[in-house]
């Protein structure tokens, strides 16, 4: 039987994973919004609007042109007031020693504010141990990139399988995967977050591919939908779209649990 988010919240070893699933259940939202804009004020404005409808905010902090400490202070305040967590989609991809520095230091000091970040597994297991040195004492969580939504991605087959095997060895820090589908059995608990979700178009001009929340959650067994331009893209009513995706994601979850008819 498929477990509820609330049931799964009890199982995780990792504190961040537990808190995220509790938040999903509390807000009845499995929606993560990806806000890829380049100005602080625009980012904060969108986050303030979508905050009530999301469990997770995904950032690319390095695209912000006027980044400063104040942005982090304000994002953290919004994360408290609207009750969501923060995922910096940094996609680390270097040796352990370097990623530990990239995670903790530099301008962004990602480990000091992002509850969750992610990493490619191409460098091998050292990338996880390097990031864990910094993130574990802070109670942070790591997602491994097991698959990508873009056309022609090389993260498939044995690469994906090897990524799952690495995650199993580090369950206290690795909380799950970026992938298009559930990759493990029901007896294991990993969160699956799926980007490339949209209700209106099938892709963009640069290789992105979109699937619906229903496809991702009901047919493929993913846990969290990641939606970007489908919510804040040109001329969209951000609040209306956030509610629409939240509802679509939650309905898909209830269908997966067998509480709604899948027709
Ligand atoms: P979009 O506007 O919904 O296409 O944005 C998708 C976001 O998810 C964007 O921030 C990407 O960097 C991110 N993403 C993705 O689209 N596909 C992937 O496989 C991974 C991340 Br990993």
Automatic annotation (TrEMBL):
One biological-process term from Gene Ontology? 'de novo' UMP biosynthetic process
Any idea where the Orotidine 5'-phosphate decarboxylase domain is? 30-244
Pathway assigned in UniProt: Pyrimidine metabolism; UMP biosynthesis via de novo pathway; UMP from orotate: step 2/2
Tell me the SUPFAM superfamilies matching this sequence: Ribulose-phoshate binding barrel
The protein's matches in Gene3D superfamilies, at most eight in alphabetical order, are given as: Aldolase class I (3.20.20.70)
GO MF term set:
orotate phosphoribosyltransferase activity; orotidine-5'-phosphate decarboxylase activity
Q: Which reaction does it catalyse?
A: orotidine 5'-phosphate + H(+) = UMP + CO2
- Entry keywords, A to Z: Decarboxylase, Lyase, Pyrimidine biosynthesis
Note the CDD domains from the entry.
OMP_decarboxylase_like
* InterPro entries found in the cross-reference section: Aldolase_TIM, OMPdecase, OMPdecase_AS, OMPdeCOase_dom, RibuloseP-bd_barrel
What PANTHER family does UniProt report for this protein, alphabetically? OROTATE PHOSPHORIBOSYLTRANSFERASE, URIDINE 5'-MONOPHOSPHATE SYNTHASE
Q: What name appears for this protein in its UniProt entry?
A: Orotidine 5'-phosphate decarboxylase
Gene source species: Paraglomus occultum
